[in-house]
Structures are given as structure tokens and as C-alpha cells.
Automatic annotation (TrEMBL):
The gene is glmU. One of its GO terms (molecular function) is glucosamine-1-phosphate N-acetyltransferase activity. Signal peptide: none annotated. This is N-acetylglucosamine-1-phosphate uridyltransferase GlmU. Keywords: Acyltransferase, Nucleotidyltransferase, Transferase. Its EC number is 2.3.1.157, 2.7.7.23. Residues 6-152 form the MobA-like NTP transferase domain. The lineage of its organism: Bacteria, Pseudomonadati, Thermodesulfobacteriota, Desulfobacteria, Desulfobacterales.
């Protein structure tokens, strides 16, 4: 079986948390939320294939992680977007890695089974990109998955860049992906910051795949709570409550 690497993005400032503590170190169920994501990744691959991208307060995040797990770190020197963050980790990937999964240090409820299913769909469909998607009644704030008349994925449009018609689309991008490693490295080199945020969007890799007529697959997640991102203290409280419910539901 081909090796899988997991890149966990944990470089952001988290300014809406109104806290001096790095966002990914805020605790959920008694431990920093990024450790929940690493624990999930360890069910899918080995420690030496896990790469945490740090940036804001990098040393503090790295110390908290290394106290628990012997994973790898890559430094994003300037916070230029998700595409740039992933690109920082690419040179550190082992040669035998064929697939790359992207997770987030502030999405602590993601489950190993979901990630394993994503990789399985990616492999079976022989895709260059596989998107973890979800259907939402209120998709406001999320990137929309744009399809052509043949229902093929052609792009992901961030909310800030979406047209009024595109904002009506209910299928959203959770931000979690499985990529073909070689394709990802090539596509990251082609990213341009020509958007309202002037950042390198990882989502633009999907558009590059479409332009090259590469296969883009979609895995639809039914349990949307798994991909709740923590951006505010209210989000943190909601995540803590959901974690408690999820634990209570385990057999």
C-alpha cells in the first residue's frame, strides 16, 4: 500500500479568539485541540508521515505537540494562505509518499474513519484531488463546490469571491482533502494570489486539476459536526459540547 502523509495546518493567528494563547492550543476535553487532530492522523499513518505547519507563536505550539507526539514540523514564515502553508511542508515529505491528506489544527472533531474513507475513495477513483464535502441548509461562510453541466467539479469558490448564484449552492468544501502527491506539488507552484484576500488558496488547486482534465472526486460527509472549525470562543464552547456528545455515543 502506498504511504500517506498528513499535513496539519496550525500556523494561523486566531485573532477572533481574543486570547494570547495560540488558537490550536485551546483545550478541548482537557488537551489542546491540535492534539486531537494529531491523534486522528496517527490512526491513518505513522508519526514520521505527520507534518504540522506552524507559524504564529510557532515555538509554543511546537513545544506543546512534541511533549506528546514525535511528529514533524514545517515553518510558514509569512501567513500567505493555505496554499502557501501546504507548500511549506512538501519538501519534508518522504519519497515513498503517494497521497497527501490535509487536516487543520482547529478542526478537532474529525474522526479517523472519515479520513480513512477519504483516502479509500481517492485511491479507488484514481483521482488527483478528492474533496471532503458536505451538504448544508445554510452554507454561508463556506467555499462552494462548483460543478459543470456534466456534474464534474471544476472549482471551489470561497464565499468572499462567490457570485450571488454560486452562494445558493448547498454543497460546501470542508477544507479537508486527499491529493496525489506529485500533482499537488506541481499545482502549488502554479498558485497565484489573485483574490480578494491576496493569498495563495489551496482551493485553487481544484481549478488547476479541472483545467488539466484531471479527475476530481468528492466524498460527502453526513456528520457535519466533525468539520466544525474553531474561530471564536463560541465555536470553542460548541466544539467542547459536541466532543462530549460524541464520546457519550461511543459503544
Amino acid at each position: 500500500m502506498d504511504a500517506v502523509s498528513v499535513i496539519i495546518l496550525a500556523a494561523g493567528k486566531g485573532t477572533r479568539m481574543n486570547s494570547e494563547l495560540p488558537k490550536v492550543l485551546h483545550p478541548v476535553a482537557g488537551k489542546p485541540m491540535v492534539l486531537h487532530v494529531i491523534a486522528c492522523a496517527r490512526q491513518v499513518t505513522s508519526d514520521h508521515h505527520i507534518h504540522v505547519v506552524v507559524g504564529h507563536q510557532a515555538r509554543q505550539v511546537q513545544q506543546a505537540v512534541t511533549a506528546c507526539y514525535p511528529v514533524n514540523f514545517s515553518l510558514q514564515k509569512s501567513l500567505l494562505g493555505t496554499g502557501d502553508a501546504v507548500k511549506c511542508a512538501i519538501p519534508a515529505l518522504a519519497q515513498d509518499v503517494k497521497q497527501v491528506v490535509i487536516l487543520y489544527g482547529d478542526v478537532p472533531l474529525i474522526q479517523p474513519e472519515t479520513v480513512a474513507d477519504l483516502v479509500s475513495v481517492h485511491r479507488s477513483s484514481r483521482a488527483k484531488v478528492t474533496i471532503l464535502a458536505a451538504d448544508m441548509d445554510n452554507p454561508s461562510g463556506y467555499g462552494r463546490i462548483i460543478c459543470d453541466s456534466m456534474n464534474r467539479v471544476i472549482a471551489i469558490r470561497e464565499e468572499a469571491d462567490a457570485s450571488a448564484e454560486e452562494k445558493k449552492i448547498r454543497r460546501i468544501n470542508t477544507g479537508i482533502y486527499c491529493f496525489d502527491r506529485q500533482f499537488l506539488a506541481m499545482a502549488l507552484d502554479q498558485l497565484k494570489p489573485d483574490n480578494l484576500q491576496a493569498e495563495y488558496y489551496l482551493t485553487d488547486v481544484v481549478g488547476i486539476a479541472s483545467q488539466k482534465n484531471e479527475n476530481v472526486a468528492v466524498k460527502v460527509l453526513k456528520d457535519i459536526s466533525q468539520v466544525l472549525g474553531v474561530n471564536t470562543l463560541d465555536d470553542l464552547e460548541k466544539t467542547r459540547n459536541l466532543h462530549g456528545h460524541m464520546q457519550n455515543e461511543l459503544p
